[in-house]
Description:
Elements lengths: L6 E7 L2 H10 L7 E7 L17 E8 L9 H16 L6 E3 L3 E4 L2 E13 L2 E12 L18 H5 L5 H22 L2 H10 L6 E6 L2 E10 L5 E5 L4 E4 L3 E4 L9
Parallel strand pairs: 1-2
Antiparallel strand pairs: 2-3, 3-7, 4-5, 5-6, 6-7, 8-9, 8-12, 9-10, 10-11
Helix pairs in contact: 2-4, 2-5
Amino acid sequence: MRPRFVVHHRQEVDSTNEEARRLARAGAGHFEAVVADVQTAGRGRRGRSWIGLSGQNLFLSVILRPDMPAARAPRLVAVCAVAVAEALRSFGADARIKWPNDVVVHGRKLAGILTELSAMGSRIAFVVLGVGLNVNLAPSQLPEELRDNATSLLRERGREVEREALVAELLESLEAHFSRHEREGFEKIRERYRELSATIGRRVRLVEAERQVEGVAVDVDETGALLFRHDGGVIERVLTGDVTSLRPADRRNG
């Protein structure tokens, strides 16, 4: 791993995101990272847990200090998702992005991404990017109810992955995509997000708070929001929520 990346290794933490937040508040710099073998209170989006077996999953959190207004932070989710997907593709997985920030292979979840923002006035103080990734997890080690919906690099490649090499590739990819975003703006990242999307162009069910609706995921806009077309034709910008691609048998209206 290149010396410019500072990586704090922990055998066990409550959550790598929480540990990264503690380090960031203490002055840790841009692209400092936390890696743990086990986390006991990891969480994903909407408070879901992400707890895995020692040495078989990867729990990584990266401190980011972009010089940008907090209002533009939603774009960072797309930047991070593209960077993680590209890193996993370099290891032979056909990684795709399920809006907003899951990484899937053939519809099965390989990684989850969680970004947490700390602002100072109207500017970003720091962002913590958390990645939970199934690395050397055999299908038999997954709960039976998840085996059709989750996967791992081991399952996709047919052989184990060295986690240190994976961390290095993830950090390299994140640095490259953040640098590109700073140089060229969001549009090029947005184009690649579209190419890697497992959601855009699909008929989906959107679940948001107490609401469930069906329609088509049309695009992501210049802020990273999902453009969702209701069955009645109205297009809505969606910033948060879960989407599930619908097979014909899943549709309520044929």
